[in-house]
Amino acid sequence: MSSICLYFQAHQPIRIKKYRVFDVGQDHKYFNDSSDTNLNNKKIIQKVAAKSYLPANELLLRLLGKYKEFKVSYSFSGVFLEQLEEYLPELLVSFQKLVKTKRVEILSETYYHSLAFFYSRSEFESQVDLHKKKIKEVFGITPQVFRNTELAYTNELAQWADKKGYKAILAEGWDPILGWRSPNYVYKPTGTKKIKLLLKNYKLSDDVAFRFSEKSWSQWPLTADKFAQWVNAINGNGQVVNLFMDYETFGEHQWAENGIFNFLESLPGELLKHPDNDFITPREAAERYPAMDEIDVPYIVTWADTERDLSAWMGNAIQSSAIKFIYDLEGEVLKTEDKDLISDWRKLQISDHFYYMCTKWFADGDVHKYFNPYESPYDAFISFMNAANDLKLRVNQISIDKSKAN
């Protein structure tokens, strides 16, 4: 039997506007670009919603109505949900309709789509708690499965999630950590007691997320029946096929005119033609299947780039200095107890800011360029550091004001 676990990540960063050195000390709003560029957060999320989120939600709601066995799972960053509340309440309602079917699971993550786990454990836990509260407030549920930003995973993270009572955690099914083993089984993370590890089948996932419209690919065009045959071939050689990808795959990364929505619409029916197939959520996979083996991941593995590490976010000197600068402010920022300032500091932790500073132009260069709203990685760094320095000035001013008051 093969259970299919469909998981979609929905996230849009809050991008920093072109923030000049002359703005430091004068302008304390870093994210309010109103131009016609890709730094305009409202414009971008409305565009992606029209192309991707809204038609995908409408389609999945129909599929959930048509196939009672069909199930999907999502994770939403807190900043994504914030932007829906501000700019697209109708999209938030459509996600709520999906959750109300009782066949959609929502996962836990950091509110700010940050890499805080690797820099500040206390800040990481604060963001996870904020995210839990947001999911409870918006959807009325408490997540039981954890995924970290960009599927960044180590043994240590799994051990943390195990102690927190999560039933499962997600990671990339990367060959070096699997060795001879298959990603199509449930595993036990090293050093844990109860939690299960679900690994992305990156080959099948990326066939959809990255190769779907690539005409030079030997398997193009990819049809739902062809893809279902590949999944069916796993029967008897696996428990669960984890298809993990960005939700923007549908309509934004892979365009409607290339047939991605037709593919998605046909996929459940084609997969359910095989009597041994069913759909499952991550929590159900953890509850249904025993761990087949233990997986040891002593170093960080992500789902990004050919290296599957954090080099896309911290692989060069400007990225490292920017991340260090912002996390070094933690104690001073929290001491201010200023909600707006703390919120801005946390928005500056959004991992996308550091991704935009990536200077890798090898196999993954086109991908980085596609996602970058700035003219260059150095422009991203300059705007970020100017904003971060202004934030530091605000922190210092509050400290001075408090000293005077005392």
TrEMBL record:
SUPFAM superfamilies recorded: Glycoside hydrolase/deacetylase
GO MF term set: catalytic activity
Domain Glycoside hydrolase family 57 N-terminal: 6-298
Organism superkingdom: Bacteria
GO biological process: carbohydrate metabolic process
InterPro entries (alphabetical): GH57_Enzymes, Glyco_hydro/deAcase_b/a-brl, Glyco_hydro_57_N
Keyword tags: Carbohydrate metabolism
Family named by the database record: Belongs to the glycosyl hydrolase 57 family.
Name by which UniProt lists this protein: Alpha-amylase
